[in-house]
Design a protein that fits this description.
Elements lengths: L2 H7 L1 E4 L15 H5 L3 H6 L2 E3 L4 H14 L7 E4 L12 H7 L2 H17 L4 E2 L23 H16 L11 E7 L18 H17 L4 E4 L3 E2 L2 E2 L4 H11 L5 E3 L8 H4 L5 H11 L4 E2 L3 H11 L5 H17 L12 H7 L3 H14 L1 E5 L11 E4 L24 H6 L9 E3 L9 H11 L4 E7 L18 H12 L4 E6 L15 E4 L7 H9 L66 E3 L3 E2 L3 E2 L5 E9 L5 E11 L10 E10 L4 E8 L6 E2 L5 E2 L3 E8 L5 E8 L2
Parallel strand pairs: 1-2, 1-10, 2-3, 3-4, 4-5, 5-6, 6-9, 12-13, 12-14, 14-15, 15-16, 19-27
Antiparallel strand pairs: 7-8, 11-16, 17-20, 18-20, 20-23, 21-22, 21-26, 24-25, 26-27
The chain binds beta-D-glucopyranose.
Beta-D-glucopyranose (BGC) binds next to loops.
């Protein structure tokens, strides 16, 4: 390869740059906008956002005709929670606590994407999230490092399978965004992240590491700074930690434009410096800017960077192409005929429906739910007839194919004609006519379903909100409906934990549906009518109000903790106007049945590294409906060298119990689960006192003291 050919292998360009793509040339003067030549496009190593069997075949074919060495393009795309069959958003998938289904969702996404010509997906996103103002919390599985790591692994297994090279129905995964993008200050996208290295290692890094341990082929940088240096130019983070310490030798790609963004960040004066810093930091592929293309050859010529660094980057990209078999078959699984059979198949849609049922979380229920087929139901609200149930990052999905909530509910009624439907308001606007229509629709109803939420543009990338209540128009609709004195259930479609003022107290029942995906309407109706018993549990706290955020369960205590707010007490860690506790804690979720916990027991009050403890608890379904309970085990270290979280999730079990059935749930506590990062960053456990907690969420649980002896 010539020097130019090597450098160009490092650029990633979006679809419209390529001959053979249906939108080729749609970027006006595409070469001009990035300042690259046609030759660079012919030499480019990868494409971003390409999908569709025939289209990818066309583009690859045209590329191979023009590329002097016949090096195939890598086709990469954001297949985040499904391809055509859209699954619930990742935050919702997290709330299922169901790793098998999560893996299956990624496997299906991979299969649909692969047959449509995609080779690499920009997923999983495993950024730990604590601030619901940040729009991208919906892309994560939540606020817990252990659970995020487990989900990260499950997604990688699902995307890549056990034999990526030999299984063309899988795609390579790219874990993102390295690192700590979720800690953006003030919940504003792309904002500064500044954490101690201990925080970073303990809370933020484990999920990326877990994904890599599972064999994830690629890593994407993040937009934010880490310890003052933007990730994309951060040699300590990438070169030292990711590559040397963790031994990652796969492809590292910048996020969109992030190489050039080193300039506005203020750590590179120009494109050349941005290119130099990024390559030195270890970034192989530059996504959608051309700093490498413009400057690497020159920088190498001047001796400012060794050609060996470029060679390493090129080699890693070529190795991934080889692993995917592209040198033997550059089209891999792309097949227009098979695509028709596989994509959006009934089997895939059924899996999406199952996951949507498991991802929704019942937040409140005074007995209104489940609804009865004999009831006269009014479905009111901007999501009654909306197809906007797919959520952000569903560009390959089709909202036209979504069964509307009102129609799914109609299908449950003994007298379908008794259903009344009204929008009641828009997402952010309301008129008197709409309100009057809503009141009219509710007039003869026995019960009302209010379908409320945020549209998909209100979360996702660049979808940050400072006020995370429902928009005022919808709160007004709730007030009007409430005046009718009829019972109503609020069903929420949204991408973040909301401040539920104006909803939670007012409604008789609240079901958090998130963005439930292609089959979401049907799945939510299944839950509302009790054909399926809700079993989702929150993986991100719902704040009492936005003034608390970030609020998360695995926080540190203060020296002056305060449980309930008390105006009589001063000089304690509390607000004068709101509680410290979130409205709904991590792990929380209701069911149509009641689970009772017996006395939890420890096998001994002392453990050693060789002698783990066993925790047992009997859980009984004391209600009259079968249900799934998620039994959670937490631990607190009371004699840490540094302060330790008040609770840390260590394990959980999901048990299905018939009415009256009970089961003894058993956990082991092992010494390695008690290890943490000390002030010198060593990772070990300390002898001393601990508490174990067993229960149905991070708040309501039994305390069991024990000691670790060494
Ligand atoms: C996002 C990434 C995404 C990339 C490519 C960026 O703006 O931050 O998550 O993978 O675009 O679409």
């Amino acid at each position: 390869m010539t020097l130019e050919e090597k450098v160009d292998q490092l650029i990633q360009l979006a679809v419209p740059f390529f001959e053979g793509a249906s939108d080729a040339g749609q970027i006006t003067g595409p070469m001009a906008s990035l300042g690259i030549t046609e030759q660079t496009v012919h030499n480019a190593g990868s494409v971003l956002g390409m999908a569709g069997a025939q289209e990818t075949i066309n583009v690859q074919r045209a590329h191979l005709e023009r590329n002097r060495l016949g090096i195939p393009l890598l086709m990469m795309a954001d297949i985040v929670h499904g391809f055509k069959t859209i699954f619930p958003v990742p935050l919702a998938i997290g709330c299922s606590w169901d790793l098998e289904l999560a893996e299956r969702s990624a496997e299906i996404a991979a299969k649909e994407a692969a047959v449509s010509g995609v080779h690499v997906t920009f997923a999983p996103m495993v950024d730990l999230v604590r601030d619901p103002r940040w729009g991208r919390v919906m892309e994560s599985t939540g606020e817990d490092p252990y659970l995020n790591a487990e989900f990260g692994r499950a997604f990688v297994r699902g995307f890549q399978g056990a034999d990526l090279a030999g299984d063309p129905d899988r795609v390579a995964a790219c874990v993102k965004h390295f690192a700590a993008y979720g800690a953006a200050e003030a919940g504003r996208d792309y904002n500064t992240v500044d954490l101690s290295e201990r925080q970073l290692r303990e809370f933020y890094l484990p999920a990326y590491k877990a994904a890599l341990d599972e064999g994830c082929e690629m890593v994407m940088t993040s937009f934010n700074t880490v310890e003052g240096v933007p990730s994309t130019g951060n040699a300590k983070l990438m070169r030292n930690l990711l590559r040397e310490e963790w031994g990652f030798d796969g492809v590292l790609i910048s996020d969109w434009g992030a190489v050039k963004e080193l300039i506005p960040h203020g750590v590179a004066a120009d494109e050349a410096e941005a290119a130099l810093k990024s390559l030195k930091a270890g970034v192989d592929i530059e996504m959608m800017t051309a700093c490498y293309t413009h400057h690497l050859a020159d920088l190498i010529g001047k001796g400012e960077v060794e050609e060996a660094l470029l060679d390493e980057a090129v080699l890693r990209i070529l190795q991934l192409k080889e692993k995917l078999g592209l040198f033997d078959n550059p089209y891999r699984a792309a097949d227009p005929e098979r695509e028709k059979e596989i994509v959006f198949s009934a089997e895939h849609r059924e899996a999406a429906r199952e996951l949507a049922r498991k991802s929704s979380v019942l937040l409140k229920n005074d007995g209104l739910l489940p609804l009865k087929p004999s009831q006269r139901i009014a479905v009111i609200g901007p999501f009654s007839r909306s197809g906007d149930l797919l959520g952000p990052w569903s560009w390959t999905g089709s909202s036209d194919a979504v069964v509307r909530l009102s129609e799914a509910i109609r299908g449950k009624l003994s007298d379908p004609a008794s259903l009344t439907v009204a929008d009641g308001c828009g997402i952010e606007s309301v008129t008197e006519e709409q309100l009057a229509e809503a009141v009219e629709a509710a007039r003869n109803a026995d019960a009302i379903v209010l379908a409320l939420g945020e549209n998909s543009d209100m979360s996702g990338e660049a979808g940050c909100r400072a006020d995370i209540r429902l928009p005022e128009a919808q709160l007004e609709l709730i007030r009007r409906v409430r005046r009718l004195g009829k019972p109503f259930a609020a069903v929420l479609f949204n991408g973040r934990p909301l401040d539920l003022h104006g909803v939670f107290e007012e409604a008789n029942a609240v079901l958090e549906a998130w963005f439930p995906g292609s089959e979401g309407g049907l799945a939510i109706a299944d839950l509302l009518f009790g054909d399926v018993n809700p079993s989702g549990r929150l993986t991100m706290s719902f704040p009492f109000s936005v003034g608390q955020v970030p609020v998360y369960y695995n926080a540190f205590n203060t020296g002056r903790p305060q449980g309930a707010p008390d105006a009589q007490v001063r000089y304690v860690s509390q607000y004068l106007d709101i509680p410290n506790e979130p409205l709904l804690p991590f792990g929380f979720g209701l069911s149509y049945t009641a689970f009772e916990y017996g006395q939890a027991e420890l096998s001994s009050d002392t453990m050693t590294p060789d002698r783990p403890l066993t925790v047992t608890v009997r859980v009984t379904n004391a209600g009259s409906t079968a249900g799934v309970e998620t039994v959670q085990l937490y631990v607190r270290d009371l004699s840490g060298e540094v302060v330790r979280p008040v609770k840390e999730l260590k394990d959980y079990r999901q048990v299905t119990l018939q009415p009256g059935e009970s089961q003894v749930v058993r956990f082991e506590i092992r010494e390695e689960q008690l290890r943490y990062y000390h002030s010198d960053l060593s990772h070990s456990s300390d002898a001393g006192t601990f508490h174990a907690f067993v229960g149905s969420n991070s708040r309501d649980n039994a305390v069991l003291p024990f000691r670790l002896a060494k």
